[in-house]
Every structure is written in C-alpha cells, then in structure tokens.
C-alpha cells in the first residue's frame, strides 16, 4: 500500500498535521481519553482509529468493568477510518500482522502520526517511508499540550503513567503564573 498522493481536493498541510491515529493500547487510560477530547475540542488534533480499534477498546474496557467506552466514542462518531479488507496485507516487515489495521488507518487518513505504547510492533524504519511517525501517548501529549494546555492536574497525569506530560504542564503553569 502506498501513501496517497496530494491532489487539489486534499486538505491543507495544517489539517493533515492534526490527524492522529491512536492504537487501542493508547486509549485504555481515562486521562488519555480526557486529553484526546480536550485537544480535539481546542482544534489541536483530529483523533482517528480503525473499526478494529473501536472493537478492541470496547472489549478491553468492558472486561475491566469500565463502561465509558461508548460515551467516549460518541464524541468522535466521525473518527473511524475505513480500512479495506486485505489492505494491510501489502504492508511488509511488520512484526504483528494484527496491528496493521492501525498503519492502514494512518495511510488511508493521510495521518502523519500514530500514538501507541507498542513501539516494537511499529518500528520507525518501516513507518518513515510511509510518511508516518510513532510516539508514545506521554511523548505525544507532552509535545501537544504546550500549545493546548488542559485542565488536568500534574499528579493525575503522573498517576496515569504520563510523567513527561505532567512535567510539561507544570512548566507551562510556572511560565504563565
């Protein structure tokens, strides 16, 4: 599968830069979902995922007794990217074929970023030729919240496993106050 070429009807570079595909494992933690909602409402990102990611998220949160997946997903009814059956088969070299729906979603959405906690299955050397970068949720939010600070407290973010994001927010708060 080759990255899409730019046509006159394509969105602007600024619009494309806000497109971010989230892997299921990046969506497990509640504060991460809060940050996604915040950044999407402030225009910082356009969160995207595959239909398989939606099903995986529903299953994982339900198994953990967390029924909030539906409320979160309702906020993003147009965030699911269609991935044609078999589209991921053309992607070679990736360790886990079960994760290729994420890469296919990024390609189909012309999204330059995948947020995942699974760096091993998304090697930069395979993503780079596709025009895609990979970041952990912590690295991603630490970078993005500089431009779009949230109302979350640093201790909440540290407890959620986002220490870099918490540190960045404390630095932003110190600069402003």
List the helices and strands and how they pair.
Blueprint: H1 13-18, E1 19-22, H2 30-41, E2 46-50, H3 51-63, H4 69-74, E3 80-81, H5 100-108, E4 113-115, H6 124-127, E5 133-135, H7 137-144, H8 154-159, H9 163-176
Helix pairs in contact: 7-9
Task: Describe the fold and architecture.
- With about 180 residues, the protein is an alpha/beta fold.
- It has a domain at about 20-135: 3-Layer(aba) Sandwich (Rossmann fold).
- The protein is built from 9 helices and 5 strands.
- It has a 5-stranded parallel beta sheet with strand order 3-2-1-4-5.
- Helix 7 (about 135-145) runs parallel beside helix 9.
- The radius of gyration is 16 Å and the shape is globular.
- It starts with 12 loop residues before the first helix and ends with a helix.
- Residues about 1-10 have low confidence and may be disordered.
- Output the CATH homologous superfamily of the domain at 18-136: 5'-nuclease
CATH architecture of the domain at 18-136: 3-Layer(aba) Sandwich
Strand content: 5-15%
Write out the strand line-up for the largest beta sheet, numbering strands in chain order. Answer: 3-2-1-4-5
Mean pLDDT across residues: 82
- Given as residue ranges, the uncertain stretches (5+ residues, pLDDT < 50) are 1-8
Radius of gyration: 16 Å
Q: So how many helices?
A: 9
Task: Offer a few descriptive terms.
disordered N terminus; 9 helices; five-stranded parallel beta sheet; 5 strands; 177 residues; Rossmann fold; alpha/beta
Quick structural overview:
The chain has 177 residues and is α/β, with parallel strands linked by helices. It is built from 9 helices and 5 strands, in the order H-E-H-E-H-H-E-H-E-H-E-H-H-H.
């Amino acid at each position: 599968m080759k990255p899409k070429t730019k046509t006159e009807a394509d969105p602007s570079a600024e619009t494309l830069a806000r497109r971010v595909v989230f892997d299921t494992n990046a969506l497990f933690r509640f504060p991460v979902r809060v940050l996604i909602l915040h950044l999407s409402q402030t225009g910082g990102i356009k969160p995207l995922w595959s239909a398989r990611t939606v099903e995986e998220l529903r299953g994982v949160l339900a198994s953990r007794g967390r029924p909030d997946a539906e409320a979160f997903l309702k906020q993003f009814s147009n965030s699911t990217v269609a991935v044609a059956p078999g589209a991921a088969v053309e992607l070679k070299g990736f360790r886990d074929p079960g994760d290729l729906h994420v890469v296919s979603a990024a390609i189909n959405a012309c999204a330059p970023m995948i947020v995942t906690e699974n760096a091993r299955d998304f090697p930069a050397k395979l993503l780079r030729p596709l025009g895609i970068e990979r970041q952990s949720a912590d690295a991603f939010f630490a970078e993005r919240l500089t431009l779009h600070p949230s109302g979350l407290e640093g201790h909440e973010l540290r407890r959620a496993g986002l220490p870099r994001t918490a540190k960045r927010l404390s630095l932003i708060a110190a600069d402003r106050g």
